[in-house]
Write a structure and sequence with these properties.
Blueprint (H helix, E strand, L loop, with lengths): L7 H8 L4 E4 L4 E3 L1 H14 L3 H7 L4 H4 L1 H16 L22 H46 L1
Length: 149
């Protein structure tokens, strides 16, 4: 995130841009239309981030050099993805969806969870066994040293 903090006046100027979904003193959320516009301008016309932002009605002096650079970097990276400008945070949340599963799907999910937990228990038992074995060795060494004295 950029270091620049927007003033109330700058926030109002940025908020008026149709390509802005939300703006706070630290961040700007751009619309999907802007993301697509940026990618099109970059791919088809070969324009740089500054030029694209200016043509979209943004004042690059208000945004700051770092934000302009990071917007360019982020959207150029998006342009290379097969999904394009689609926000993947909702799709790849990391947590599997469990609502609306059929009984068979729920059973399958629970079977996988049981298998995982069984493997985890097995692993923990092995660790515990290794730790006890190491403790016994340490105790044997201690006892052999104390008996030699």
């Amino acid at each position: 995130m950029a270091e620049k903090i927007f003033t109330a006046e700058e926030i109002e100027i940025i908020r008026k841009n149709p390509y802005v979904k939300n703006v706070s003193e630290k961040a700007i959320t751009y619309t999907d239309e802007f993301k697509e516009y940026f990618i099109d301008e970059y791919k088809k016309k070969g324009l740089g981030p500054s030029q694209i932002l200016k043509s979209a009605g943004f004042d690059t002096k208000i945004l700051g050099k770092e934000r302009v650079r990071s917007v360019g970097k982020r959207y150029r990276k998006m342009a290379e993805r097969p999904e394009g400008a689609v926000d993947l945070r909702k799709v790849n949340s990391g947590r599997p969806v469990t609502k609306g599963l059929s009984p068979e799907e729920e059973i399958q999910r629970l079977k996988q969870k049981i298998k995982y937990l069984e493997q985890e228990n097995s692993f923990l038992k092995k660790i515990e066994f290794i730790e006890k074995k190491a403790e016994r060795k340490r105790n044997q060494k201690k006892n052999s040293r104390s008996s030699k004295k």
